[in-house]
Backbone:
């Protein structure tokens, strides 16, 4: 029996189990709002009860059973508004388990279905991201709005609209069949990757990194890898985000400034994350079914191997970029590949490649060009390329970095 | 089963040349036959061009009639089908076949069930 239970312990159960409980309740009742309300009620009850009683043997089982009872109560109370119950049982009708029959032990894991519902291509990408954070990660509307720097009312409306579409258009609550699965997994991975990238380099605002978004993306990546353990790209994405995350502490300097990979203090890299990421990359290699996330993970694994920037095996990185561009061609991949080309064949060759790209609206295009021009001893052209980059960059920390680089030209 | 409205959006102006049109009509009929065989088909209508449309509004109890379609633009509703499907994925699968056959975009909208009495 646990003596006293801190609020932090309950918070940690909440973070870990919220999505699972909501997923089970959605399956049982076919109504997302009802499921959310019931699970939140159950956690409120837990925060009153557990500090006295201690943690139950299966906290998530307790939460799900309590939430189920709360949901049934709520439906009874609302039975006068007869439409509600009828509506709830009609939704997802092929799959409805009557609430009384809901089996909480052993616990079914319905999170995979819920991910596919949240990331359905009939929903706009920003709605997919918001729903995934809300329903699976248990973030509040306020937290999601803050993370994406949009007004709370905007985010609330986005969520209401998305949930309304799921209900009214009957977006299914199921894992897609084998024929559709690969394309749909791609959509889910895109949501997790977008979430991670937004955390890694916030697209606007005065902080470079939004760590909470990186952490949620990694949690979701781990969940996907647990639910789809034999999908190479799922594993590749998890490896990629772990390896990039391993450098987070080194990427931000003492004054919050951006530190480039080449200038990072590598002793600040997180060895455990590197080890885990590299092990996943090796697992991907044994499958021999390469995909874009796996290759990007492999590129990051090569960086992780280098004791210093000078030790980096750029030849290997360039070969990986060649492979990446062959299966996932696009101007942004070509731009990143050019950085490796500059290291292997020199900035002159790289500049020629970059000048062919139609990326005039992308700040990193100008920033990378500026760096090549600087290395080629063409400072006035470099300065004007930095100016273009600075004008297009909405993140304060990155802008300061670019301004410093520009000033260093003089 | 739920019902969905599949709307075909057509560019205004000249229809495709006869040969292309013939192929399109064949493909559309094939999709409709497949829908019927699957028990998914409820209703289909093709519309005359938007230039034949008339809009009527009532203001202060007086009808106001205008010539032409409600929305301005270069594309208009050209026809629609109503289908039965288990969920949006099933509806989108029919819509995908119809979009391929018509070579035009298809809008999929759920139909409200049990309209209020």
Residues:
């Amino acid at each position: 029996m646990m003596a006293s239970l801190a609020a932090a312990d309950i918070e940690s159960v909440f973070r870990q189990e919220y999505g699972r409980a909501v997923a089970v309740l959605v399956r049982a009742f076919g109504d997302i709002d009802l499921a959310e309300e019931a699970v939140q009620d159950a956690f409120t009850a837990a925060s009153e009860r557990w500090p006295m009683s201690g943690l139950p043997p299966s906290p998530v089982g307790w939460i799900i059973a309590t939430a189920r009872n709360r949901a049934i109560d709520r439906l009874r109370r609302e039975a006068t508004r007869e439409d509600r119950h009828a509506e709830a049982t009609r939704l997802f009708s092929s799959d409805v388990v009557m609430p009384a029959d809901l089996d909480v032990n052993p616990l079914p894991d319905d999170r995979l279905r819920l991910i596919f519902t949240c990331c359905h291509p009939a929903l706009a990408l920003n709605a997919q991201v918001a729903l995934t954070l809300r329903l699976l990660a248990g973030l509040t509307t306020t937290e999601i709005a803050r993370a994406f720097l949009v007004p709370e009312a905007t985010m609330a409306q986005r969520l209401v609209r998305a949930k309304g579409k799921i209900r009214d258009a009957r977006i299914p609550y199921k894992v897609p069949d084998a024929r559709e699965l690969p394309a749909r997994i791609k959509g889910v991975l895109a949501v997790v990757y977008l979430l991670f990238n937004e955390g890694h380099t916030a697209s606007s605002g005065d902080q470079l990194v939004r760590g909470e978004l990186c952490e949620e993306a990694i949690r979701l990546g781990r969940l996907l890898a647990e639910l789809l353990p034999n999908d190479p790209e799922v594993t590749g994405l998890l490896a990629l985000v772990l390896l990039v995350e391993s450098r987070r502490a080194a990427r931000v300097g003492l004054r919050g400034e951006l530190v480039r990979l080449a200038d990072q203090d590598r002793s600040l890299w997180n060895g455990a994350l590197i080890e885990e990421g590299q092990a996943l990359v090796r697992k991907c290699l044994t499958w021999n079914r390469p995909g874009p996330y796996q290759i990007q993970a492999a590129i990051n694994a090569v960086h992780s191997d280098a004791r210093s920037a000078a030790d980096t095996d750029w030849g290997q990185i360039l070969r990986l970029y060649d492979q990446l561009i062959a299966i996932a061609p696009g101007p942004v991949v070509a731009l990143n590949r050019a950085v490796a080309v500059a290291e292997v064949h020199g900035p002159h060759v790289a500049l020629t490649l970059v000048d062919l790209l139609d990326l005039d609206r992308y700040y990193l295009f100008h920033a990378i060009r500026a760096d090549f021009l600087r290395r080629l001893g063409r400072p006035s052209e470099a300065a004007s390329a930095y100016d273009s980059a600075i004008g297009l960059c909405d993140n304060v920390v990155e802008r300061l970095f670019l301004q410093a680089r520009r000033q260093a030209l003089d | 089963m739920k019902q969905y409205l599949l709307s075909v959006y057509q560019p205004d102006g000249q229809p495709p040349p006869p040969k292309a049109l013939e192929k399109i009509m064949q493909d559309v009929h094939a999709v409709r036959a497949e829908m019927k065989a699957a028990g998914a088909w409820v209703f289909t209508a093709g519309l005359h061009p938007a230039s034949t449309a008339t809009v009527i509004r009532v203001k202060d109890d007086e009808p106001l009639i205008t010539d032409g379609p409600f929305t301005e633009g270069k594309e208009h509703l050209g026809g629609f089908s109503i289908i039965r499907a288990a969920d949006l994925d099933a509806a989108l699968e029919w819509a995908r076949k119809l979009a391929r056959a018509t070579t035009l975009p298809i809008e999929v909208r759920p139909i409200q069930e049990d309209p209020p009495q």
User: Anything to note?
Assistant: Chain A is about 70% helix and 0% strand. Residues 366 and 389 of chain A are 5 Å apart (CA to CA). The first helix of chain A runs from residue 7 to 29.
